[in-house]
Specification:
Length: 230
């Protein structure tokens, strides 16, 4: 039996899951802001105990690779690498957007629908991609500004399922599209399990030493305005 530890830290959600042969047997998550560094290892230890497992029983670690929060992705990747180095087990990277689409496809009942996950990238910008119900890529990952021009450029030949915290933010614009479904589907490590299992079976592993998250955009540190630091 393949046991995989799944870590999701790409957004404000801190989520940990344990899967056996692609089926989630334990899940713990929180939406508390800035909780990743505090909760990730704690959740892992609690889940292992709940599932009657030791960390030595884990066969691989899957990490949500982005795009998403720079800080969140760094914390998730660092933790995943630490587990992999210590246990000498493989690292699996799962696209954050594909994982959301994987969670959404179980809610889809319309044939030929396009699944369009969106992650909030501040203001009216989102990170997004387009998938079919088999999770094949229709449009690759990209950053877009959701406005009237974006809506006009969409191919409306098929119904669309917009999901994720970015979709909820842009609902007032997206809801003018015919045959559209909009749902806030928070990131969850549980959505990673079946994708991670398939990658494990195909031995699609990352180089633990050199793997980096997919930020999509460069990190720009904000200028400090604290007195005495300018």
């Amino acid at each position: 039996m393949t046991k995989i530890l799944c870590l999701e830290t790409a957004t404000e959600i801190c989520s940990v899951a344990i899967s056996i042969n692609g089926q989630v047997v334990g899940l713990k998550e929180t939406s508390d802001q800035n909780s990743h560094s505090e909760k990730l290892t704690v959740f892992t230890a609690e889940l292992l105990e709940k599932c009657g497992l030791s960390i030595r029983d884990i066969d691989a670690v899957a990490v949500s690779m982005g795009p998403g929060s720079y800080t969140g992705l760094r914390i998730g990747t660092s933790s995943a690498k630490g587990f992999c180095y210590a246990l000498d087990i493989p690292l699996i990277a799962v696209s954050t957007l594909q994982a959301i689409a994987n969670g959404a496809k179980n809610l889809v009942k319309t044939n030929g629908i396009q699944i369009i996950p969106m992650i909030d990238a501040r203001r009216m910008e989102v990170y997004t991609a387009t998938y079919d119900v088999d999770l094949s890529i229709i449009e690759a990952v990209r950053a877009v500004v959701v406005d009237e021009n974006y809506v006009e450029q969409l191919s409306k030949a098929s119904p669309m399922f917009f999901c994720g915290n970015g979709a909820l933010k842009c609902a007032s614009i997206l809801e003018i599209i015919p045959n559209v479904i909009i749902q806030d589907l928070p990131c969850s490590a549980s959505f990673m399990a079946s994708i991670a299992q398939e990658k494990f079976s195909n031995q699609q592993f990352e180089d633990v030493a050199y793997f980096e998250p997919f930020y999509l955009k460069d990190f720009i540190a904000a200028q400090s305005y604290v007195k005495g630091l300018r």
